[in-house]
Design brief:
about 35% helix, elongated
């Protein structure tokens, strides 16, 4: 049976999912993430943070605004397993 080799750019298009910065997302914060949020975004801490589950539900742009400066290779994790869940 022949092996089909798809060009990488076609595979990327097949698997791509479009998201909007206004889409709702959810993350489970680490202890470091909770400290960072409380120090840098009191609105998120008061209105979007669930203390029982340690999760934040907000728009993607607000998550990026609050945690963007902490997202680089080698940074301490703000979200458990570095997972950002898109809420559809």
């Amino acid at each position: 049976m022949p092996v089909i080799c798809w060009p990488l750019f076609l595979l990327e298009r097949i698997n791509m999912k479009k998201i909007n910065i206004n889409d709702m997302v959810q993350v489970k914060l680490t202890e470091r993430g909770i400290r960072h949020m409380k120090e840098n975004d009191s609105v998120m801490a008061e209105f979007h943070f669930d203390k029982n589950t340690k999760t934040v539900r907000t728009e993607l742009w607000q998550l990026m605004n609050t945690f963007g400066d902490t997202m680089y290779m080698g940074a301490e994790q703000m979200f458990e397993n570095n997972v950002v869940e898109i809420i559809e």
